[in-house]
Known about the structure:
Blueprint: E1 2-10, E2 13-20, E3 27-31, H1 38-50, H2 58-63, H3 65-68, E4 71-79, H4 88-100, H5 111-124, E5 133-137, E6 139-141, E7 146-147, H6 154-160, H7 173-177, H8 180-189, E8 191-195, H9 201-204, H10 210-216, H11 220-227, H12 230-251, H13 268-280, E9 286-289, E10 292-295, H14 301-319, E11 326-331, H15 342-355, E12 358-363, E13 376-383, E14 386-393, H16 397-407, H17 415-433, E15 439-443, H18 446-455, H19 457-462, E16 465-469, H20 473-487, E17 498-502, E18 519-527, E19 530-534, H21 553-562, H22 585-589, H23 593-603, H24 608-620, H25 630-640
Helix pairs in contact: 4-6, 11-13, 14-15, 17-20, 18-24, 21-24
Amino acid sequence: MIIGLLLRYIKTYQGINYIPITSKDKFCGFVGNNGIGKSSVLEALDCFFNDKQWNYNITTKRSGFSVTTPLITPLFLIKKDKISESNKPILESLSNTVWDLQESDIPSINRPHFKTFQSQRTEIERTYKKEEYYLFPLGIDHKGNCALSIFNCNKVAITLFPEIGVGNQNLTPENIESLKPILKEIKSLYQYIYIPKDIDPATFTKLETTEIQALMGESLFEVLEERVPQSQIAQINRSLNQFLTTLSEELDIYSFRTPTDRQQNLRKNDIYKLIIDAFFTIRKLHKKQGKHWLEITDLSSGEKQKAIIEVTHSLIKNHRENTDNLIIAVDEPESSLHMSACFDHFMKMSEISDESHQFLFSTHWYGFLPIIERGSVTAISKIEQNHRFDLISLANYREMVKQQIRDSRGQLPYDIRLKSMNDFVQSIVTSILDENPFNWIICEGSSEKIYFDYYFKNLRSENKLRIIPVGGANEIKRIYEYLVVAIDEFKREVNGKIAFILDTDSELVQFETQNTSNIFIKRLVNVDNETKLININSNPKSPPTEIEDSLNGKAFYKVLKKYKSQYPGLLSFVNVDIEKSEIPSYFALDLRPSEYENLLNFFDSDNIKYDFAKEFITEISSEIEYIEMNWINEIRTFFEE
């Protein structure tokens, strides 16, 4: 995984810049104003991995390489078993030093950049152990020589080469070049595919391009080797040579021969090139529209952009066997895309990141911030001509933004939260105004999404239903209030529907709401042996009710039994020999307060809510016919009417 990047005099970046990319997530975005340097990060990595031409900063063009010494140095976090034995000793030394390096070990001029890395390293240590992972910088300068950038300090030098001795001396160019075998191995570990904003979709999606073959995980030559084997080519050569022999016998003193005495047979590569030219090159990507197929060149700009991501997604998910080494980078994937389509587009990219090693992108659409649960975003800004980088985790980005605003004393771009909510709400509004509208369920957490994805799977395909977990009742309140204002002037034009589903929390979030024919906002509450959907401010306001309290009791208890051996203390009340009735789980289990407290603690452990939801769906979708809860039918009826 690439966790950061050091750039020196590359495009918009003057001097040394350390750009944090991620502390653990594979879905990594860059946001900021035009010309701020988002695309430069993706392009620089393309130069590093694929030897593309460097785009230097204007200062380099004026002052020359000897003054500026441009470089591109990624920071890697790599599992130790991925590295060959021959390279492990020196990499072990380098990594151990980087894990432990302190600000005082770095020259004062580079300490501001190191402090950014040091803060990021603290987050990395919460997820990854240095006993299992190498953490190290390794890049190249403009000449192609190895470069460590700010990490070329005396402590690193004496760790790798003890004879250097303690002092101010750093690694010499000759010392650093000893890292060349590691650099070569690291570059070979990954396939980096960069999709720039101005790429021609028709060219990119041709089967013979390097990018498409990389996404497939096999070259066309490899495809042909399997389908046109050497034995078949040998048979063709034998047959053709037999024909020429017969013809020579018929011509007596004449013969069709090669210029030399050696008879020239068809070579494998000759055959493959001919097949590629005659069979694959003439084929272009088409998209099915109704009963017709449209060539990609005939699609709108937005549809072309969608095609690139959808083809990438399909090839990685359905065709390529090994995606562990694939890093995909996309520049402004929302370019030319209608606002209503942005949500699906970014969700598709998030799915690609799940299937690949890492997914990097730059964007001006902030609407993904409230809805993507696992990812990192680097907000790039400028203060007095100096770049500023703020790394935000999407898992808790609201809290991180607040904290970073405090830490930066208001210098963090004010528009991150504002733009993210505005873009997200605009995407929803435009989608429900369409003649063929989207429909939405806005819920609190990821476990709710799992249940709703299953229960409303038909609505997802037939009614274009999208289900969004936004991270709690306060966020639902915020989105609801934004939406009500946004659609007020379009009331008569609204075709889609939105359902907001909240839990009943012990500290209930209350706000003014109004259910209309297109907006349905309710909370779950258990009362009278049934889970009901009631208005936000209605009674009853207890007991606290989460979706786990509202599921089919029989199926819920069966899944709970699977966890008893793993959590014997918290689930001591579970009896593996009995079954429960098919009423809401809260009533079916009928727990004492202390037992219910243990159940809540169980769901707060080790991401259990998410895993339990997956297990529950597996159980509920088995051959056994389970009764569906009334509140689920009520939501379905809202969308079907």
